[in-house]
Design goal:
The structure is a single chain. With 240 residues, the chain is mostly helical. It has a domain at 48-165. It is 37% helix and 5% strand. It has helices spanning 2-11, 45-59, 67-86, 97-107, 110-121, 139-155, 183-186, and strands spanning 225-230, 233-239. It has a two-stranded antiparallel sheet. A hairpin with a 2-residue loop joins strand 1 (225-230) and strand 2 (233-239). The longest helix has 20 residues, at 67-86. The N and C termini lie far apart (60 Å). It holds the Pfam family GRDP-like. InterPro entries: GRDP-like.
């Protein structure tokens, strides 16, 4: 709290850090809450902020700002909503992170999102990000497998997209130093368990691997072959 207050004062010296409700005018039916009075707001903002922090880690990669990549994400998001309409909104479908990013962006315009959902799905599609258990047999895992299956059946393409899949838990946060402290003093020693990820820009290429198994082949023909292609042309091939 103190470090936040200090940073706020440095950045906004003429704006008070604590909001003064007395400077606003309200209608006659609304009264400012009294000191210590509980709010009627039921949504847990603390837990929601923690979930959004984890979501931000999943989408905070350079290709998520690439216009070409986002155009593809937009088309996939439309396909995701169409898949929902085909299931008559009775199933829990799991978005990949490129689709989820577009889903979040769509909700920023509340009226647009509401009108679009009612037009496409005849109802408002809630964004439930509280389902985070990825253990085998969990609701999230079963729904994810089902989404992959339905996508492949409907569109004839794998649901997986390079750079849009779950990449593990977020790394440990870098602590914000208080006055008189340095970041270096707060980090663990060399060889400790501090985790970090690099942020270098990179090119993204999607590779789909198809494995074909044939039975009763002669011994001389029993080998596996993997080839890589780009723009429809084979670049390399490996055999074993």
């Amino acid at each position: 709290m103190e470090s936040t207050r200090r940073l706020w004062k440095e950045r906004f010296p003429h704006e008070p850090y604590l909001l003064d409700l007395t400077q606003f005018q309200y209608d006659q039916q609304w009264k400012p809450p009294k000191q210590g009075e509980l709010s009627n707001f039921k949504y847990n903002l603390h837990e929601a902020a923690a979930r959004q922090s984890a979501f931000y880690y999943q989408v905070s990669r350079s290709h998520m700002k690439d216009e070409k990549y986002l155009r593809g994400a937009e088309q996939r998001y439309k396909g995701f909503l169409h898949l929902y309409s085909l299931t008559q909104n009775k199933l829990f479908l799991v978005p990949t992170y490129d689709i989820d990013l577009l889903w979040h962006a769509h909700q920023l315009n509340v009226k647009c999102y509401t009108d679009d959902m009612r037009r496409i799905l005849d109802r408002l599609l809630p964004h439930d990000d509280s389902v985070a258990d990825r253990t085998p047999g969990s609701r999230l895992e079963k729904s994810s497998i089902l989404t992959h299956k339905l996508w492949l059946e409907r569109y004839g393409k794998p649901y997986i997209r390079e750079g849009a899949m779950y990449r593990g838990e977020p790394p440990a946060p870098v602590p914000i130093p208080l006055q008189g402290e340095t970041v270096t003093s707060l980090l663990p020693d060399i060889g400790g368990s501090f985790r970090y990820t690099t942020k270098e820009s990179r090119e993204v290429m999607q590779i789909t691997l198809t494995i074909v198994r044939a039975r009763d082949l002669p011994m001389v023909a029993r080998k596996s072959s993997v080839g890589s292609f780009t723009d429809g042309k084979q670049m390399s091939q490996f055999s074993s």
